[in-house]
Design a protein that fits this description.
The chain has 652 residues and is an alpha+beta fold. It is 35% helix and 26% strand. The strands form 8 sheets. The protein has an 8-stranded mixed sheet with strand order 16-20-21-28-25-24-22-23, with helices on both faces. Strands 2-1-5-3-4 form a 5-stranded mixed sheet. Strands 6, 7, 8, 12 and 13 form a 5-stranded antiparallel sheet that branches. Strand 26 and strand 27 form a beta hairpin.
């Protein structure tokens, strides 16, 4: 079959080695394994790079065949779907111009200039139908390498200023077009073999988006959508969307009286109401206790800092545009910034005293509020705000202590996740971009040491990890914890970073056992990430049914009539004073049915129903949220039940 042809070796994920003729495609490799597999291949990962399954393999390589079960496979489907939507839009709205159309975590979007034509959400079903019609034509996605001059000529003829602007940053040899049906786009791919894989389509939302994210540019229409290889999967996804609406932390936050936003205070600046503040404080106390046991020392830094502080740290150069504008003082040339990060302040705290190798590791912790100017269109409840409080800590240690300290921080992060019922998570090893090192500070040797420390620590702890290049902080690599909530959505919560660079920039030192000066290594860590984002995610994860130790009100004591009011108040006082159980008494002249319904809506874990019979017996009738009646018992037995549940939640 391959006689006379040059052969290449292909290594599959299971380690098996196969030989094929040079020029064989990934799809043909799949077909040689099984026709069933070939029918499900969406794209391929060759030597770690995702490419079209129809592209030829010309050298020895590793090969992973990507299907719908792979994240990169889904991404290929959704990017191809964006192109399919663009073809439908061109057919329905002639003269339409296109910005960018990437795959995102769940689906895709395309930024579109309708050239004066109007569109609303009422038009989305029509666009979906056109997409389905085009998908059934089984159009092949064709890749074509093209010169820059040819590409420019093509988009000049189409009068597409957006693609012409994108071409300005590209050079000959790196420009490719993809075509399917009647649509051609500037794109590096990869794409599906053909459109037949797209069987179910839902366009989910319309939004405004400035071209290239710049408020000075034209506002385009962003159309979001998602596609699936089966109609059943789309129905399941839409069901999850409905459930997500019910769990939306903005909706529940209002219903449970946790937080509020005021235009007069400012967009993205949450106001914590009494119940929300109490919940937040309990999270802080929980973390403080864990930190105290782990040897952390509390510090406090101001909400502003001199501009020179952030110039030294590098934050001004990297994040100056994303910060609030500088605050000028009456002294000429003096400027301050609202604090965007806590770490520069902690570096200065470290420098406040001479340090010896015997003093290390030094673990400084602060619940520090920081401020970043997010664009108004990117703000979203508590999960994207302009002012937020980080459970921040910085560990200053000797190089030989880095791995041990990093592992201890991993233990702390996992303790937090267990206490709050986050069991499905992956640790993302976030490293530098392989090609572009310009966006990072520090020398190569230190980066290599930092990256190795993170990789080894994650391996030692047996974490399920993925490696993402280009996701490192500008000063160092990090370990980001990606959790899945109850609806299977991914969130980044918790981060640990190894940093050799800020100690260098701030000239931090300690005296070693050799009596010489040495540089400490800095570990940044925030298990919550930010309290605001963490609480927003937690609300949606547990649908507002917080763990008993955390919930603002653990019990509602409901009187059946005025005759039992005195005993109700006595029970509340006894629970609060003797057992540290939080709750309230509902003595209103309302039916007991109404009181129960309202307590259920407030998601109060326990209700104690007290009428004349209970008052006379000095007992309480217990009702559990979402479950119903649990019998009549003594007050101390109820208190023991509550405290046992709390103890079980926290004894992990």
């Amino acid at each position: 079959m391959y006689a006379g042809k040059k052969m290449i070796k292909v290594t599959l994920p299971d380690g098996s080695l196969r030989e094929y003729a040079k020029g064989t495609t990934s799809l043909e490799v799949a077909r040689s394994i099984s026709e069933g597999l070939a029918r499900n291949v969406l794209s391929a990962k060759v030597n770690g790079q995702v490419i079209d399954a129809s592209r030829p393999l010309n050298e020895d390589c590793t090969l992973q065949l990507l299907t719908w079960n792979d994240t990169d496979g889904k991404s290929t489907m959704w990017h191809s779907s964006a192109h399919l939507m663009a073809e439908a839009l061109e057919a329905l709205y002639p003269g339409t111009k296109f910005g960018i159309g990437p795959a995102i975590e769940n689906g895709f979007y395309y930024d579109v200039d309708f050239n004066g034509q109007s569109i609303s959400s009422d038009d989305l079903p029509k666009i979906e139908q056109k997409m389905l019609e085009l998908a059934k034509t089984n159009s092949v996605y064709i890749r074509k390498e093209i010169s820059k001059n040819e590409a420019i000529a093509y988009f000049r003829e189409k009068k597409d200023q957006y693609k012409l602007e994108l071409l300005e940053g590209l050079e000959d040899g790196q420009i490719t077009f993809y075509s399917q049906g009647n649509f051609t786009d500037l794109c590096r791919g990869p794409h599906l073999p053909d459109t037949s894989f797209i069987k179910a389509i839902k366009l989910t939302a319309l939004a405004g988006a400035y071209w290239r994210g710049d408020e000075k540019n034209k506002m385009l229409t962003r159309i979001y959508g998602i596609t699936f290889p089966k109609e059943k999967e789309l129905k399941e996804y839409l069901h999850l969307l409905e459930e997500a609406k019910k769990r939306d932390h903005r909706k529940l936050g209002k219903e449970l009286e946790l937080f509020h936003f005021s235009e007069k205070v400012g967009m993205g600046l949450p106001l914590w109401l009494p119940k929300g503040a109490a919940l937040r404080e309990r999270l802080i106390d929980f973390m403080k206790k864990a930190q105290q046991q782990a040897g952390y020392l509390p510090v406090v830094s101001p909400h502003i800092g001199n501009k020179n502080l952030y110039i030294t740290s590098g934050h001004y150069e990297k994040y100056g545009k994303d910060s609030f504008q500088p605050i000028a003082t009456p002294q000429e040339g003096e400027e301050f910034f609202l604090k965007p990060m806590n770490c520069p302040h902690h570096c200065e705290i470290y420098k406040s005293s001479p340090r010896s190798y015997k003093d290390l590791p030094l673990r400084l912790a602060e619940f520090g509020t920081v401020y970043r100017y997010e664009q108004s269109g990117e703000l979203h409840g508590l999960t994207r705000v302009r002012g937020f409080t980080q459970d921040d800590a910085h560990l200053f240690c000797r190089p030989d202590q880095v791995k041990e300290e990093f592992c201890k921080v991993i233990d702390l992060v996992l303790y937090v996740f267990k206490a709050l019922d986050f069991h499905d998570y992956t640790a993302q090893v976030s490293l530098r971009d392989k090609e572009n090192h310009e966006k990072y500070i520090g020398d190569e040797a230190n980066w290599t040491l930092a990256e190795q420390a993170i990789i080894e620590s994650a391996q030692e702890k047996g974490l399920k990890t993925v490696v993402e290049y280009g996701e490192a902080a500008f000063y160092g690599p990090k370990l980001d914890f990606m959790i899945k909530d109850a609806l299977g959505r991914k969130w980044q919560l918790g981060t640990i970073q190894v940093d050799y660079n800020l100690p260098e920039r701030f000239q931090l030192e300690y005296t070693g056992s050799d009596n010489q000066k040495h540089r400490p290594v800095m570990i940044h860590r925030a298990p919550f990430g930010s309290l605001e984002r963490f609480i927003g995610v937690l609300i949606e994860h547990c649908a507002g049914n917080f763990p008993l130790w955390l919930t603002p009100e653990q019990v509602a004591i409901l009187s059946v009539s005025e005759k039992s009011n005195a005993y109700v108040e006595q029970v509340l006082e006894q629970l609060q004073k003797n057992y540290d159980i939080r709750g309230y008494a509902d003595l209103r002249n309302e039916s007991i049915g109404k009181k129960i319904r309202e307590a259920e809506l407030k998601k109060i874990p326990f209700m104690l129903i007290i009428g004349e019979k209970e008052a006379l017996a000095q007992k309480v009738a217990v009702r559990i949220h979402g479950k119903g009646d649990a019998g009549i018992i003594e007050i101390n037995d109820f208190a023991a039940m509550v405290n046992k549940e709390i103890e079980n939640d926290l004894s992990i």
